[in-house]
Amino acid sequence: MRAVYRRLIMVFFCLIASALCLSAHGLDHVTLRNGFTVDCAHHSAVGDRTRLFISRDDSSYQELASEQIAAIEMLPDPPVISLPTSVLKPAGEPTAAELRKLLESAGSTHDIDVELLASVIKAESAFNTHAVSRTGAQGLMQLMPGTAQKLGVEDAFRADENIAGGTAYLDSLLKLYKDNLALALAAYNAGPGAVARYHGIPPFRETRAYVVRVMTEFARRKRAIASSAAMATP
Q: In terms of domains, do 145 and 88 share one?
């Protein structure tokens, strides 16, 4: 299995140290007096200090002196991905079990964890097979028409083609960045050109939130599986 999974925890905490915090429904954008910025799920004042919460369940946070904060603003929710009114859900829409099999097949072909693929799809389309973004990205893994064409995807709204193409693209990015999951996800969201231009994760709010959103969902899924396995062990 790829080294990406062994590096997951290390990279995740590096991202936190770089002021990336998760939120699935909007972020607090905190500007510090030293010029750095932090995106977090929410914040609260505790005396003369402020806690910046990484998750909405308040289980993890960073704390700093309130005087270090110059401003706090609420970031908008991620762009809404909509189902075109002209598209009706076809009778052949894959079930959850069928979708899982497609992910397992694509993951096996490219040696990518099924839970990582599921985490990307959740962030990209919320498992909406006919999702279309405001920029024109299509399907479960939100492939741009040009990218889909290069990947041999004839119909981006077909779950099997979309997953096969999106997984192949993610695989190429993981190989390009030597299994650095954070950079691969940043490139998946903003493009390899942006990663090259900024020599790392681009300073785009959407991209930084996306990277942590996917990595955190991936970690959550792996913990859930480990917990279920432990409970099933006599």
A: yes
